[in-house]
Design a protein that fits this description.
Largest sheet: 7 strands, antiparallel
CATH class: Mainly Beta
Order of helices and strands: HEEEEEHEHHEEEEEEHEE
Oligomer: single chain
Strand order of the largest sheet: 3-2-6-9-10-5-4
Number of strands: 14
Distance between the termini: 34 Å
CATH topology: Pnp Oxidase, Chain A
CATH architecture: Roll
Radius of gyration: 17 Å
Number of domains: 1
CATH superfamily: Electron Transport, Fmn-binding Protein, Chain A
Shape: globular
Length: 197
Amino acid sequence: MIAIDPLTNTERDNYKLLVGTIIPRPIAFVTTVSEEGVLNGAPFSYFNIVSSNPPMISLSIQHSAGKPKDTARNILDTKEFVVHIVDRQNVEQVNMTAAPLAPDQSEISLAGLTPVDSSVIAVPGVREAKVRMECRLEQAVEFPGFELIIGKVVQFHIDEAIYDQGRIDPVQLAAVSRLAGNNYAAIGEIFTIERPV
């Protein structure tokens, strides 16, 4: 084993160790609306479940060039956002939204995604996702260099093709996950291990 002290590493070295070992990471495609009314969209792989009762998710949004990204700023301003699960069919379009655009430009338009109204919140989602979660900001913790966002899911939208009696079919969902660099992973072998009683 190689022992590495993160204090002796650069931020980039620690980043490479984290994203290379904590894999696969689910990808949240997040839509927000700016105070000026611009529909923003961006992918984040620092994303996970926080709680099921109430249903809550987390996003860690790193700063860009020393400033909060449009997504974090919009969430802090409006207290609303939509999280979409990235799948094999929409990953190319979602990847396009990672382009560094000015705040007054919409990544949704750039990627050719189709806005769709939400049911409970004002922020639209996109039609191309099989799963959309309308969220309200539950808590934001601001750290030097990033914001940790906790959102409460106030409405689920699930494609009928992946939904069966309250469960999601992982093969039909075809979610993709983030690895390191430019690499992604699709659902591969699925195996079952019974929990001990």
